[in-house]
Write the structure tokens for this entry.
Amino acid sequence: MVTLTEDRLDILTRALTALSQDQCLGLSIPFFSEDEISDLKKETAALPMRRARDRVSHKGVVVSQDFDICFPAPRQGALENLCHVLETGCNQANAKMSEPVLRMPYHINDLAVQNYPAQSKGIGIHRDGLRYRQIVFIITLAGQSRLCLCQDRDGNGATVIDDRPGRLVLLSAPDFAGRDGDNGRPLHFVDQVTDGRLSIGLRQEIA
């Protein structure tokens, strides 16, 4: 089970500070042990999956998808433990900061597990919905692929985010560090899924 240590709290505090800097909309930090990743992998791999829609559209923007998904994933067992550690860590880190970056207590109420097959086309360039606030977490549990942030929907300025198993990815969302609208949520995509990909997305949804 994942535990919140003082070292991890310090890592989260530094990560929130870095994410709040101008032009920083996403970053990756070392966070999980091999045993913790293994426990999460066993639990999530056993969840019932369904095929995601091949394409989703919003206001004329079409995003391709090539994965199976469990959504909403149950907040129980190892996933409940994970959510509790990330929530507690973010809220305690925020309280330690001279300039807090969270507008409200952080609470994860949206969990998705995605399983990309080998040679999957991944997911196209997109932003997470406006209903997701403050921070989006992405955790890769297995496989080899590429997660990138980019500047526009043509993929210009693509920057690779290290999301190998053991890393914790944080993406900015509206209400983090006073950001709003598109300014607070990066364009990103997943491709080059050469060896499959099993990942978790954790978000705070505001109705």
Q: What stands out?
A: The mean pLDDT is 97. The longest helix spans residues 77-96. The first strand starts at residue 26 and ends at 30. The helical segments are 6-19, 34-45, 77-96.
